[in-house]
Design brief:
Blueprint (H helix, E strand, L loop, with lengths): L27 H12 L15 H24 L3 E15 L6 E12 L4
Antiparallel strand pairs: 1-2
Length: about 120
């Protein structure tokens, strides 16, 4: 309102202290951070809080906890915003012999399904 002090000392409103028509006034110092927050890919859903008790399944759970967001970022960077299908999906498991101990190679091959804009 006219004549009322700005409740956020040190912040100036753009447009001469007026709210722009149809939107909120965002101080310039905050606009870059807000723009980044509004244009990053969202995290959709969350993992179920039930932790598996089987040791092998727990390791897969742990892998997703540690590498889930980096994998999501890599997929979005290389392919776009979407998901990997769990229906059109083929997992493979192979053994890699190694003198220090055999290794497990797990491949997840799923069709990419881009999010649709409504």
């Amino acid at each position: 309102m006219a004549g009322e002090p700005d409740p956020r000392p040190g912040h100036r409103l753009p447009c001469g202290g007026r709210q722009p028509a149809g939107g909120l006034a965002i101080p310039e110092a905050e606009s870059q951070e807000l723009r980044e927050q509004l244009t990053t890919y969202p995290i959709k859903g969350a993992l179920d809080p039930v932790i598996p008790t089987d040791p092998l399944l727990y390791r897969f759970h742990e892998i997703l906890q540690v590498y889930g967001l980096p994998l999501k970022d890599g997929i979005q960077e290389k392919i776009g915003d979407g998901i990997m299908s769990a229906i059109d999906f083929t997992p493979t498991v192979n053994k890699l012999e190694d003198p220090k101990g055999d290794r497990v190679l797990v491949t997840m091959n799923g069709k990419f399904l881009p999010y649709r804009k409504w």
